[in-house]
Write a structure and sequence with these properties.
6-stranded mixed beta sheet, Nitrilase/N-carbamoyl-D-aminoacid amidohydrolase, single chain, 14 strands, alpha/beta
Length: 263
């Protein structure tokens, strides 16, 4: 039977292109988290949103991946976040989802933020990812993906109307466009009848971008469950499986959703 899921969003400043400093900081923060099922870190949590991929990229299975696996197994909680990986001569903004048993899955950011030349440095992903964790199906995405609803849209399957139960975004989303972040997180929850959570960083990076957090989680109704603005903060919330199932039963809007495929 599907259990409730407790998630912890770590909203933090980041050390610019200093992998060891960021890992040390997040390790301390992770050990301060109370009992939880899933710990969520920001986009490019080891470096900040840098285009200097050649300087800071790691190979698959490198230092940061080993650290994530160690943290997940020691804390007995899944951990997810994205960082820079070099594989096959290409750089990826890659999200890893590491389970408490040390197993992992990965997603490469699909929509690259070309206003910051991300597409000139990184290679886009091509595959969506649905993860199973404690009976929940989770769809993780990265930052700019939030602006593209088709990529996140829950598709009807043969066995279920709902492709996933939790839509998850990790980000470095600047304060100048934070109103879009707030509105779209809520919209993604409502249109997919799923929980939606996003973690964003705070502080100022080395290229002068300011970040004011606004990490939060929303119910399938679009209700705000937890939220924090511009300060470094840990947000922990328990998502109710029963409330989600009841809402979906009472308001089965997904049964009228359009059938579609992604090319």
């Amino acid at each position: 039977m599907m259990q409730d899921l407790t998630i912890s969003l770590i909203q933090s400043n980041l050390y610019w292109e200093e992998i060891d400093a960021n890992l040390a900081m997040f390790e301390e923060l992770i050990w301060s988290v109370d009992q939880t099922d899933l710990i969520v870190l920001p986009e490019m949590f080891t470096t900040g949103f840098t285009m200097n991929a050649e300087r800071v990229a790691e190979p698959p299975g490198g230092k940061t991946f080993k650290w994530m696996r160690q943290m997940a197994t020691q804390r007995k909680a899944a951990i997810t976040g994205s960082y820079i990986v070099k594989e096959g001569g290409h750089y990826f903004n890659r999200l890893y989802f590491v389970h408490p048993d040390g197993s992992s899955q990965q997603y490469d950011k699909k929509h690259l933020f070309n206003l910051a030349a991300e597409g000139e440095t990184y290679t886009p992903g091509t595959e969506r990812l649905i993860i199973e964790c404690k009976g929940w199906k989770i769809h993780p995405l990265v930052c700019y993906d939030l602006r593209f609803p088709v990529w996140a849209r829950s598709k009807k399957g043969e066995d279920s109307l709902y492709e996933y139960d939790l839509l998850l975004y990790v980000a470095n989303w600047p304060d100048t466009r934070i109103n879009a972040w707030d509105a779209l997180l809520k919209a993604r929850a409502i249109e997919n009848l799923s929980y939606c959570a996003g973690v964003n960083r705070v502080g100022t990076d080395e290229v002068g971008k300011n970040y004011n957090g606004h990490s939060g989680a929303y119910s399938p109704k679009g209700e705000e469950l937890v939220f924090s603005d511009g300060e470094e903060k840990m947000l922990t919330v328990t998502l109710s499986a029963e409330e989600m199932h009841t809402y979906r039963k009472d308001f089965p809007f997904q049964s009228d959703a359009d059938d579609f495929s992604l090319s």
